[in-house]
Design a protein that fits this description.
Helices cover 27% and strands 19% of the residues. The protein has helices spanning 57-66, 102-109, 114-132, 198-214, 229-239, 256-265, 277-284; strands spanning 9-10, 13-21, 25-32, 37-43, 76-84, 87-95, 99-101, 138-139, 148-151, 158-161, 168-169. A 6-stranded antiparallel β-sheet has the order 1-2-3-4-6-5, with helices on one face. A 3-stranded antiparallel β-sheet has the order 7-9-10. The radius of gyration is 20 Å and the shape is globular. It starts with 8 loop residues before the first strand and ends in a 20-residue tail after the last helix.
């Protein structure tokens, strides 16, 4: 059950519907008195509770959103407090995206042309490039199709990174993967033991790109109800200990460069991945020749 109800008034804003919720926050589509649409993220946890970086979720995300000014990221508008059921809750207001999440679109569309997938991935990479260029640099740390919305207002779909729940400065760790609600299927293996880098964000883009092109995940695993997160990470680790397989079909005939781009983006060893979002973008534009990457070297798992 959500904290706010449909058509509930919050000062000048009216709740339209709940978009999603997790243990720490709820995202709502709201309208102001002039009929303008926004996203309102209501923080449901203890606002005094600090992360490993020494800042609570609201403060950390609010500081990041205030620095954002990019078409592939949702623009910050304001912040505030609201009293709900006798408790004061913090919220952040940011631009509304008229469209759907990439995960919803994937479920319906299942597979994209190379041109469509490349367009969407370049947009996501441009959003990450902006985050990585902030001072200090910010890592997303939780990128997946659920964190991206596709704006359908114009003639060309525009991907926008909307969810920054796990974002944080590059030189600090947030929490171990095992303690989080992030989707491990999109997380680089080094993040299972708490190491987050630019290459970890780019790995997540690689998984999304592979999924858009093939209609499947590069290393899918069977997940049982109630399965411990550590078990899921263990399964993923061992499934990833072989070179990436690129399936082809009548609708997907990649050239050698595209295959190498996917192999590089999804390499288990981060030193062989793209060094930056800009390098990844240049490869997709055909401005950078991607050489064949070395085979995976096998190391024992260490998940913290």
């Amino acid at each position: 059950m959500s904290i706010l109800s449909r058509k509930q008034r919050m000062g000048e804003y009216t709740v339209e519907w709940l978009v999603w919720k997790d243990p720490t926050a709820e995202l709502y589509h709201v309208k102001n008195d002039k009929g303008k649409n926004y996203f309102l993220k209501l923080f449901t946890g203890n606002k005094e509770e600090n992360t490993a970086e020494g800042k609570n979720d609201f403060v950390q995300e609010n500081e990041i959103r205030k620095q954002i000014a990019h078409p592939n990221l949702c623009r910050y508008r304001t912040e505030g407090e609201v009293q709900v059921k006798g408790e004061v809750r913090k919220y952040i207001l940011f631009d509304f995206v008229s469209g759907e999440t990439l995960s919803c679109q994937l479920a319906r569309k299942q597979q994209y042309t190379i041109s469509e997938a490349t367009h969407l991935v370049i947009g996501i990479l441009n959003g990450l490039k902006h985050l990585h260029s902030l001072h200090p640099p910010v890592l997303h740390k939780g990128l997946s199709p659920d964190a991206v919305m596709i704006s359908l207002l114009g003639q060309v779909p525009v991907p926008k990174i909307t969810d920054l729940s796990y974002a944080g400065v590059a030189e600090n760790k947030l929490h171990l993967c095992l303690e989080e609600k992030r989707n491990p299927l999109y997380m680089a293996t080094e993040t299972f033991s708490g190491l987050f880098t630019v290459q970890s964000d780019l790995y997540a883009v690689g998984v999304i790109f592979y999924q858009l092109l093939t209609g499947q995940l590069p290393w899918d695993i069977e997940q049982e109800a109630g399965q411990e997160r550590g078990e899921i990470c263990d399964k993923l680790y061992f499934r990833r200990q072989k070179n990436i397989y690129i399936p082809t079909s009548d609708s997907f005939q990649p050239d050698e460069q595209l295959i190498r781009i996917l192999q590089k983006a999804l390499h288990e060893e981060r030193e062989y991945r793209f060094s930056s979002a800009e390098e990844f973008i240049r490869a997709l534009h055909g401005e950078l020749y991607v050489e064949e990457v070395p085979d995976i070297q096998r190391y024992p798992p260490s998940f913290g």
